Amino acid sequence: CIVASIKLLGAGGSCPAGHPHAYSGGNYCCLHGYEKDEGRPGCNGSPISLGSHCCKKDDHVSCPTAPCYSFGAGWTTVSNGQKGELTKLCTLCCSLLHQR
Q1: Which of the 8 DSSP states describes residue 84?
Q2: What are the residues whose beta carbons fall under 8 Å from the beta carbon of 96, sequence distance 6 or more?
Q3: Which strands sit side by side in the sheet containing 4-9, from one edge to the other?
Q4: What is the mean pLDDT of each run of 10 residues along the chain (100 residues)?
Q5: pLDDT attached to residue 11
Q6: Is the pTM of the predicted complex or chain greater than 0.70?
Q7: Is the dihedral of CA 41, 58, 16, 46 positive or negative?
Q8: Which phi and psi (to 5°) does residue 74 adopt?
Q9: Euclidean distance between CA atoms 43 and 34, whole angstroms
Q10: 3-state DSSP helix/strand/coil % of the chain, to nearest 5
Q11: What 3-state DSSP class applies to 90?
């Protein structure tokens, strides 16, 4: 199943292995696979995703080559031929996102 799609101008890159989980549109990388629980959407202790707004224990780093995708994710890059615009499609199965 496709679980995320990001339109990019330029390349972007991977989160580092030490903080492997991309979130906040790929601008940050979190050590943990879960959001911090602040009781609000995007910060409610759910599995972290590109739509998340916070990281468990605030243990994050800025993406070194934003926008980032999660370290080790199976991404496919598709070019639409318009000024280098790329679409990156995550091909991980949804069940992998819910592992603790």
Answers
A1: T
A2: none
A3: 4-9, 85-90, 75-79
A4: 45 85 93 95 93 96 90 58 47 38
A5: 55
A6: no
A7: negative
A8: -90, 100
A9: 9
A10: 10, 40, 50
A11: strand
